[in-house]
Write a structure and sequence with these properties.
2 domains; Arc Repressor Mutant, subunit A; 0% strand; single chain; mainly alpha
């Protein structure tokens, strides 16, 4: 078996195909270990958009996102044997993406671009609700920019990526206690930046 086709045409076609919601991570990993290209395409479709948003929030350079995401997924393809199943597959993959993002930041010190990362709207909401929801999110993200990188990371992974503390510790390669301490200080600083108020879900 060769390597998966990561050409622009192949990736765009895979990205647009629907993903089954009941994919079994363990079975998917076993199929990828067996060099099943279809399984890799399923994983690609399932993770690409989430990884792209995750990476963009770290590198702040849109032109690097696809490169970092593809590098991440190639590690998954090449090193599935290193996934032992003692965490969620998503935790392992996002840990790889985190390290690849940090490496990209070290290697590219060019000025940051405006990523326009939060332009998505929900078709299920009215235009007024969408506008209010987007504005609240923009205010929150703007406030988060006033935090240190470590504090932004734990907020993003907890509230936007929905990882637990142990999973965040695995992704960031630090003790759980460190994650909890960073979350405490992040929430305190965020409350100060938002004039004493926090959204109900934080």
């Amino acid at each position: 078996m060769g390597e998966p086709d990561l050409s622009d045409r192949s990736l765009e076609a895979a990205r647009r195909q629907p993903v089954a919601r009941n994919n079994n991570d363990a079975l998917l990993v076993e199929r990828i270990r067996a060099r099943d290209m279809v399984a890799f395409e399923e994983l690609y479709r399932s993770y690409y958009d989430r990884l792209a948003r995750f990476v963009l929030k770290r590198v702040h350079r849109p032109h690097l996102v696809e490169e970092v995401v593809n590098d991440t997924l190639m590690v998954v393809w090449d090193h599935t044997d290193s996934f032992k199943g003692d965490s969620r597959l998503s935790t392992w993959i996002f840990g790889i993406a985190y390290r690849k993002s940090m490496k990209a930041l070290r290697n590219h010190q060019d000025p940051m671009e405006d990523e326009n990362a939060e332009s998505h709207v929900s078709p299920e909401l009215s235009p007024e609700d969408n506008l209010g929801r987007r504005r609240n999110r923009e205010l929150l993200l703007e406030a988060m920019e006033g935090l240190s990188l470590e504090h932004r990371e734990v907020l993003e992974l907890t509230y936007f990526q929905e990882f637990g503390y142990q999973e965040i510790a695995d992704i960031m390669s630090c003790p759980v206690g460190t994650v909890k301490t960073r979350m405490f200080h992040a929430r305190r600083q965020l409350r100060r930046l938002l004039d004493g108020t926090l959204p109900d879900w934080i």
